[in-house]
Amino acid sequence: MQCILVLNLEFPERKRKRQLCEVETQIRETTPLTLNQMATLVPTKPSALSGPVQSSIPPAVPSTAPLSLSSQIGMAILVIAFVFGFPGNLFVVWSVLCRVRRRSVTCLLILNLAMADALVLLSAPLFLRFLAKRLHWEFGAALCKTIHYLCCVNMYVSIYLICLMSMDRWLAVAKPFLSQRLRTKKRLLSIMLGIWVMAFLMALPMPFYRIVRPFRPGMHVCMPYHWESDTHEIFQYLSETILGFLLPFTFILFCYISVICRLRSAMFQRKGRGNALILIIIAAFTVFWLPYHLINILQVIGVMQGSSSSVLKAAKVARPNVTAFAFMSSSVNPVLYVFAGSSHIRQAGLGFMAKLFEGTNSESATTRSSRGSNAEISVFTKLSVKLSRKGDRAETPGGEDETMADV
């Protein structure tokens, strides 16, 4: 079926038709049409290609038509993410601000992570409405661009906060004295502010690659738009994957491989709560975002192969599902904290999460004090051995002279 829709027609014809066919395929899967309705999608005048479209396109299908399976799954994911994630992240923020007495570096980074996740989960009701209206976007172009921009900001903030957590663990184990000098409140706040500013800057291309287009009377779609250029499409998805996953994840792996090697060769083998908590956060981020970035890579490969590539078609079919799956990453962390701090629930009640986060502070203090106490023990041992030798020499003839010579 030829896909001709109500659009601005100054773009190159072939690429425009391909993009519109993809949109119609999504909408047709979301809202089943009768054969008569499909037939009326073709304009009544051939001259429509060179001017405003005069067509007999019917109004939107009544809302009583059943939703597609993919829309129902997407709505279920969004409901679960919002119901568990939004109040859960607010509870994390409340626990850190109101119940934690001494906030460690890990604790403050978890606070920022929860704030970023709560912010992006505010967009869930808009996406729910979008799916419930069968891909009709009724909130305007500005909000379409804004919420996708905030989702991209959340992705960058999350991964770079995790990088900072990993670097803090590495410094605490590999360079404890340097770590102690760097762990000042002013320096930490400056670094976190830098991460937020960097995330907002790195996400700037996202609003330029989103547009609201009319599909038929009474229906507008918030959709990707790459200015009719394969270069823009490759740039967007490749930059997201490199800057938002490959580079930071490589840095995280380096930090934790170094930490593991250091701990195996050191005298302290204790595994702390801070390490376990950060590893849980890293695992959750990887599980939920890795499929999204794999689809990014597949789509880049497909675009380079050409518009008829089966890889490109498969990537575009899978993108809505992996995007919804990545959205779950903003809601899973509070659930993981509940499991990690379950041993404190009976004792601390609602303050169990504060107990969990305070454990990261005591662990870092223990690491530093263990290093200091080990050094002190070593010094005292050497002094005691030397004094005992001096005492033995004093008991022998001429020992006093030898002792004075030693001194």
Automatic annotation (TrEMBL):
Q: Give the compositionally biased regions (Acidic residues).
A: 398-407
Q: What is its main location?
A: membrane
What are the UniProt keywords, alphabetically?
A: Cell membrane, G-protein coupled receptor, Glycoprotein, Membrane, Phosphoprotein, Receptor, Transducer, Transmembrane, Transmembrane helix
Q: How does it sit in the membrane?
A: Multi-pass membrane protein
Residues annotated as transmembrane: 73-97, 109-127, 147-167, 188-209, 242-263, 275-295
Q: Which PROSITE patterns match?
A: G_PROTEIN_RECEP_F1_1, G_PROTEIN_RECEP_F1_2
Keyword Transmembrane found: yes
Localized where? Cell membrane
Q: Which GO terms describe its biological process?
A: inflammatory response; phospholipase C-activating G protein-coupled receptor signaling pathway; positive regulation of cytosolic calcium ion concentration
Has the keyword Transmembrane been applied to this entry? yes
The segment(s) forming the G-protein coupled receptors family 1 profile domain are: 88-337
Q: Which GO terms describe its molecular function?
A: complement receptor activity; leukotriene receptor activity
What segment(s) does the record annotate as region Disordered?
387-407
Q: Where does it sit, as one GO cellular component term?
A: plasma membrane
Describe the family membership recorded for this protein in Swiss-Prot or TrEMBL.
Belongs to the G-protein coupled receptor 1 family. Belongs to the chemokine-like receptor (CMKLR) family.
Which protein is depicted? G-protein coupled receptors family 1 profile domain-containing protein
Top-down, what is the taxonomic lineage of the species of origin?
Answer: Eukaryota, Metazoa, Chordata, Craniata, Vertebrata
